[in-house]
Amino acid sequence: MKKRTIFLQFALAASLVFSTIASAASAASTKDIPIGGSGQMEMVGTIEPTILSVTMPTFVPFNISSSITYQNKVVSPRINVKNNSNVPVQIDVAYTKVNLSKIKDAQWSNTGTVKENQIAIGLKQEEIENEMPETLAHAKWLKANVAQDTNVMILDANQKGAMYVVGTLGQKVSENATFNVTPTFVVSRTSID
């Protein structure tokens, strides 16, 4: 009987000690640490992979004509772009495949300045909402069939933006033909300052 009583007293004492420690731990997690005192805090971090997602069209038809009175000789639809990511992204052109084989004697200009038989095409971020740019200022020119690293747009997290195809052509370039321009876009994470 005596052994049973001692065992019960020991079990009761042990349960009181452990419950005191448990309540002290929860109280310590919200307790202020006095000046000159010390304490510990457990911090748990989780690394979450960032998925970059940008929505933009895969086909954009445009017309180019010498008869347009503005500096920008291209008429293109508005190219809507949306960053679906929760981080800022930048959109770059890494390469542009250009095929001028259907236009006799035409050549490409990588700079936006054209001679009489040249064509230049670029991209320009929208400056006035829903309004096609008339000038070529701040255009990002596409370089034909060579690697390039041209930033065309930076978008903050979940931000929408727009750009247009812009360009010009020399007076001897035929306006009765078609040509293909296929830029390769690269989306990467960036920080906006």
Q: Notable features of this structure?
A:
193 residues; alpha+beta; six-stranded mixed sheet; three-stranded antiparallel sheet; 1 helix; 14% helix; disordered N terminus
The low-confidence parts are: 2-25
Question: In percent, how helical is the residue content?
Answer: 10-25%
Number of strands: 11
Radius of gyration: 33 Å
Helix and strand pattern: HEEEEEEEEEEE
Main beta sheet: 6 strands, mixed
Mean pLDDT: 84
Q: Give the termini distance in whole angstroms.
A: 78 Å
> In DSSP terms, counting alpha (H) and pi (I) runs of 4 or more, how many helices?
1
Principal-axis shape equals elongated
The share of residues in extended strands comes to 25-35%
What structural class do the secondary elements suggest? alpha+beta
Describe the protein.
The protein is α+β, with helices and mostly antiparallel strands and 193 residues long. 14% of the residues lie in helices and 33% in strands. The chain contains one helix and eleven strands, in the order αβββββββββββ. The chain has one helix at residues 2-28; strands at 54-55, 63-64, 74-75, 79-83, 89-99, 107-108, 118-125, 140-141, 147-155, 160-169, 180-189. Strands 1, 4, 6, 7, 8 and 10 form a six-stranded mixed beta sheet that branches. It has a three-stranded antiparallel beta sheet with strand order 9-5-11, with no helix packed on it. A two-stranded antiparallel ribbon has the order 2-3. It is elongated and about 85 Å long. The N and C termini lie far apart (78 Å). Mean pLDDT is 84; it is low at 2-25.
